[in-house]
Amino acid sequence: MRLSFLLLSAVLISVTRVVVVPADASKSGETLIVYGAPRLHLVDSPQAICKRKSMPNIETCAADQISRIRSTALVVAHLPYEEQLNRFASVDDQATEVGHLVIDGVRNLFAQAKEVLTRPEGRRS
Q1: What is the CB neighbour count within 10 angstroms for residue 122?
Q2: Nearest 5°: phi and psi at 46?
């Protein structure tokens, strides 16, 4: 049971993507959960796609990209726009960025543990 859940989760993660669509003049921004867009990064945006492709007119390219995503992938959910996800989508190497976040989190955890252990009431006999 546990193995089948892990396999199902791995498959869903491998084909499910988060697409962040920033606001433009016509409508507010949104975050889409899409299924069936394996060429996208795990967290992506139309502007980031165009930037990676070195397209000269990013606004026109972004409109084309979001249109293509909506027509070829299944949009599972529409969520509110999230600026942090948009910044993450524009990072060229997301794996490195995640690694830095994990390392920072571990450093903070160790710093907190050290602080607790150096307090007189935090020590154990």
Answers
A1: 11
A2: -60, -40
The Cα–Cα gap between 13 and 60 comes to 29
Rounded to two decimals, what is the model's pTM? 0.63
**Spatial CA neighbour of 19 closest among 71, 100, 78:** 78
Question: What value, to the nearest 5°, has the Cα angle with vertex 84 and ends 78 and 87?
Answer: 105
What SS3 state is found at 117? helix
Across the chain, the runs of DSSP E, i.e. the strands, are 16-21, 30-35, 43-44, 74-80
Contact 51, 58 (CB under 8 A): yes
The whole-number average pLDDT for the span 22-46 is 83
Q: Which has the higher per-residue pLDDT, 62 or 119?
A: 62
